[in-house]
Amino acid sequence: MTTVNPTTGSLPVPSLNRPVAVGGAVLTALVVNLVIWLIGAAAGGDFTTIDGDKTQDVAPGGVIVLSTVPLLIGLGAAALLSYRWIVVLRVAAAIGSVLALATIFGTIAADFDTASTVSLALMHVALVPILIISTEGLRKYLTQG
User: What are the transmembrane regions (predicted)?
Assistant: First the structure.
């Protein structure tokens, strides 16, 4: 059970080194988004869309790639830049969260069925706490020592 720290009003964040923060965030995003995909598929989502005259299937391969690659690049870059500027971690959390939420509109604009649209949108939302916890854990690790 997680408890709120009464002195700061925030949830406790683990202290994470760079490889653990990046790797753990990417692995967590992958697992969470695959679970969301499975739930969406069980709810009848087919995760296909029509682009012009072609039908595109975005799952599970698209879920795997789009859950890991952007997060790995963005969080990896932030972790590397944090060697020089620790403030980049908070900037990365903010920019990454905004981008994750803003790209939901592309999912909504595509021609997916309802279950697929909701599932794909939830995958974007799931990235926000993952980004925040990993960057704050890394920031905590770097400021402790």
Answer: 20-43, 63-81, 88-109, 115-133
Residue 91 counted as domain residue: yes
| Sequence-ordered alpha helix ranges (H) in 1-145 | 18-42, 61-81, 88-102, 104-109, 114-144
Residue ranges, the chain, pLDDT below 50: none
Residue 108: give the domain boundaries.
Answer: 18-144
Question: 127 vs 13, 54, 85, 109, 137, CA distance in Å?
Answer: 16, 29, 23, 20, 15
pTM: 0.85
Residues facing 54 on adjacent strands:
51
Number of domains in the chain: 1
